[in-house]
Structure formats: C-alpha cells, structure tokens
Amino acid sequence: MNNMIITQELVNAAADAICAEGNKPTVLDVRKRLQAGSMSEIWRFFQVWQSAQQASAESVVSVPSELQQALEELITRQIDNVKKTLESEIETLRQTNDELMAEIDQRTQQSTQQTAELNSARAIKDEVTGRFDQLNAELKRAQTEIEIEKESATQSRMELVKVQLKLESVSRLEADLDQMYKTLEQERVAKLNAEHSAKALASKLEIETAARKKAENDLLALIRSKEEQPA
C-alpha cells in the first residue's frame, strides 16, 4: 500500500464512481479502487457513506387500496431482491471480517517481533555495560599493580647500590649481590609483563567502549524508529 491518507471524501468518491458504473459498491470494491489504506479505516468511512445513501433513499409513498394486491406482489419481489442483496452483503461482510482479522493478526505479529528485537537490544546493551565495567575494574587493578612494581623496582635499585658499596670491603656479599641481580631481573620482567597486560587491557577497554557506544546508538535508533511508526 502507498502512503495516501484515506479520507471520507475519497471513500465517497470511490463509492459514487462504482454506482455511476451501474454496480453496487462494497467496502472491498472501494478498497480495490483506492489501492491504499487499511480495511478498518475504509470500513468506517464506507459505513458513513452507506448511511447517507439510505437516508436519501427513504420516502413515504401512499398507495391506493385498489393497487394493494399488486403492491403486495411487488413488495414480495422486492423482499426477494432485498434478501439476495442482503445475502450478498453478508458474504461481503464475511470477507471484510476475514481481511480485518488477517490485518489484526499481521499487526500483532509485527508488534511481538518488534518487542522481541527491543528486548534483545536492551540485553546486548546490558551485557556490553557489564563487560565495560569489568574491564575498567581490571584496568584499575593493573595500574595499581604497576605502581607497586615500580615502587618495588625503586627499592631494589636502592638495595643494589648499597650492596655495590659493601662489595668494596666485604667480599662475602658477592653471593648476595648475585641474588639481588636475579631478583631485580625478575622484578624487571614482572614489570614488563604488568605493563604489557595493562596495554592489552586498555586495548580491550577501547574495543568494549566502542561496542558499547554502538549498542547504545543501535538501541536509540531502534527506539526512535518504533516511536516514529504509527500506532
């Protein structure tokens, strides 16, 4: 269907055009001619048109008594015609009802699907937010560990200087000095590992931050599209 707005005037014009062609219009005929709008809104305007047609067709006719029998026969034939017309209208109403029910089912399914998509987007946002908070906490712990390692390395350098001074007079401290060098090397390796871990965590944090922003933007776009759609 196109985006044409259905009005009472459009429905009246379509129904009158069908009458002008010598046919009795139904709501299905009007909808086919308009090729736009939903069955529910066309049906509402079509009922107004029908009421106006019935009001204009009503009139009081006085019949002489001598024509009463002929009139009764005429009325009988007219009743038969009306009965056929009503049966046709009942079938049209049945078809209209079927289309309305199908349209309602389709819109219900669309609404259910949109609700599921919105809930999925919210779940993704919550997951990204939780992951972001976790990585942020890990980064802070890594930064704390780096500071501790830096302080430990500074203390180790100070101890190394003291040992070097003692070596001038105490040869037995050579073994301790070797051990201190090993410890310093281990601490240096630990520091490098900690710095590498911090860089890796920072990279993960950037990736998760970008994913979180994307998820939030997707969620906002989805919510905005739902709000812009007609009820």
Q: Overview of this structure, please?
A:
It is a single chain. By secondary structure, the chain is mainly alpha-helical. It has 2 domains: 1-52; 119-228, Helix Hairpins. The chain has helices at 8-20, 27-34, 39-57, 68-167, 174-228. α2 packs across α3. The radius of gyration is 43 Å and the shape is rod-shaped.
Give me some keywords for this one.
single chain, 231 residues, mainly alpha, Helix Hairpins, 5 helices, 84% helix, 0% strand, rod-shaped
Q: Helix and strand layout, with pairings?
A:
Blueprint lengths: L7 H13 L6 H8 L4 H19 L10 H100 L6 H55 L3
Helix pairs in contact: 1-2, 1-3, 2-3, 4-5
What top-tier CATH class of the largest domain fits best? Mainly Alpha
Rg, alpha carbons: 43 Å
Distance between the termini: 17 Å
Number of strands: 0
Structural class label? mainly alpha
Count of individual helical segments: 5
Q: Segments where pLDDT lies below 50 for 5+ residues?
A: none
Provide the CATH architecture of the largest domain.
Answer: Orthogonal Bundle
Domain module count: 2
**CATH topology annotation of the largest domain:** Helix Hairpins
Global shape: rod-shaped
> What string gives the helices and strands in order?
HHHHH
InterPro entries: KfrA_DNA-bd_N
Protein name: Mucin-associated surface protein
Organism: Tolumonas auensis (strain DSM 9187 / NBRC 110442 / TA 4)
Keywords: Coiled coil
